[in-house]
Design brief:
2 copies of one chain form a homodimer.
Chain A (H helix, E strand, L loop, with lengths): L11 H4 L1 E2 L20 H10 L1 H15 L6 E8 L5 H7 L9 E5 L5 H4 L5 H4 L8 E5 L8 H4 L5 H20 L2 E9 L2 H13 L9 H7 L2 H15 L6 E5 L3 H18 L11 H10 L1
Helix pairs in contact in A: 2-12, 3-12
Protein name (chains A, B): Polyphosphate kinase 2 family protein
GO molecular function, one term (chains A, B): kinase activity
Pfam family, one (chains A, B): PPK2
Chain lengths: 285, 285
């Protein structure tokens, strides 16, 4: 018998859920809500849950082949170095690439800027049966754009409502949405930036411009606070994941995905053909 | 010390390379060219090489952030059940999703049919720094289309040249191309189709239409033979990978990818900033 998988005492779907009454500043970025184990147990759990995640993903995919319109969209937002890349690599990376549509949104191109801010987002949505992962998203349009003043305040204000409507329509058409903010402390970011400079194989990840963003820490936190206040809805909830401990953030996001998929009540599609007749055909072939 | 990784005696890049003089019918689909170990050693090797593959992929990606145009395109073609999905899951799946662009080509849509056959292919090419994986490809346009008579013989004939030119231009612009045919026997396919019917969680993968294609086995083999004859070039080579043994096919394709990336002479980009000055800025921040 393999050792028991450490369990969450409270599911991240409950422990990390935030609503319009969020107080971001009061959330401890080093905490491990719902989990009493340490790094060793956390890593064990991350590995152990991959089988469950894989089976759920395959069912989601299989159902789409028989007409299901269901899909899952995971939105990842965070300050630099908070660990979006690690989530993609270690959580999403354990899922069959055939069932994942990952997209990293960069600074909008000139072509993208000519359209409304949701235009480029809509092009990257997961199709039926897929798990979509957005590394950054339409939330940049109310985060960096607010902090940097790239758009006027009334425009930003209008976007919250457009985002709510957009996400509601996605949910309506079968896409489950999980919005994740990886929450780190400025001290942890400092340590991680310094580490990138210590290792030559990490230099490529370092961008001097990241330090300029870092100077605006408080403004970004305020923009996140506001964005979450305005766009927390029952159908497209936000989860704030403490991320100073990478192992916790990874297992928590994995569990959020598993919980969402389990809640979809997926099952293996029934054969739409006569199994015995097909077995006979194969035997003759 | 960890146990030594079993080695290929002859690299798959040499052992599996075919040219215009290919004789597909003479290639044993149960063989394990270049490797004397068995399933156990093969699986050990597959796991052990993931670290090398990951580092190479990350270098490819990192270089693209500093202006490199290099990318890799892996084309997977095969008869049904030959194991394309397993390659994607177990070989490609070990690579960071951020560095992989996987695309499965299906029957062309009405919109795609209104364009030339390479139009939809060009839209899915990997960008700089990416490993592109085509699950089926433009080769369907000279395989099923030939066998099923969806295009006239002179049109098919013209396509070989168009494919050669297209691939040459890709290579010219920095995309390394590996073309893989997973080669199984009709007996092995029969066993795999039967297995899909035995397990209820595999029924969704079974399509009665696959048996119709199976009836055309010899015609498909002839179409592959011809396609490989006409499109084997030094810059975009074909590799025929014996695939009756899944463990061999996976480790062989993994090694083909590793060999291609190693041949690109990738390295970690040098810092384009003053490391000490940035360290001082971080300390002050």
């Amino acid at each position: 018998m393999s050792p028991a998988i450490p369990a969450f005492e409270t599911s991240p779907s409950q422990a990390l859920l935030v609503g319009p009454d969020i107080d971001l500043a009061s959330i401890d970025s080093r905490a491990t809500p719902g989990f009493t184990g340490g790094k060793k147990e956390g890593r064990l759990k991350l590995d152990a849950e991959n089988a469950e995640l894989s089976e759920l993903q395959e069912k989601l995919f299989a159902e789409s082949r028989f007409g299901s319109e269901l899909s899952l969209l995971v939105v990842l937002q965070a300050m630099d170095t908070a660990g979006k890349g690690g989530i993609v690599r270690h959580v999403v990376g354990a899922v069959d690439p055939q069932g994942v549509k990952h997209y990293a949104f960069k600074t909008p191109t000139a072509a993208e800027k000519r359209h409304d801010f949701l235009w480029r987002i809509k092009k990257q949505l997961p199709g039926p049966g897929m798990i979509g992962v957005f590394d950054r998203s339409h939330y940049e349009d109310v985060l960096i754009q607010r902090v940097r003043g790239f758009a006027e305040p009334p425009v930003i204000e209008e976007r919250y409502g457009l985002i709510r409507d957009f996400e509601a329509s996605l949910v309506e058409s079968g896409t489950r949405i999980i919005k994740v903010m990886l929450h780190i402390s400025p001290e942890e970011q400092k340590a991680r930036l310094a580490e990138r400079l210590e290792r030559k194989d990490k230099h490529w990840k370092y961008n001097p411009g990241d330090l300029d963003e870092r100077q605006l820490w408080d403004e970004y936190q305020a923009a996140y606070q506001l964005a979450i206040e305005r766009t927390s809805t029952a159908e497209a909830p936000w989860f704030v994941v403490p991320a100073d401990r990478k192992w916790y953030a990874r297992m928590a996001v994995q569990q959020l995905i598993i919980d969402a998929l389990q809640d979809m009540q997926l099952s293996w599609p029934k054969a739409h053909f006569d199994v015995e007749a097909e077995q006979a055909r194969i035997a003759r072939s």
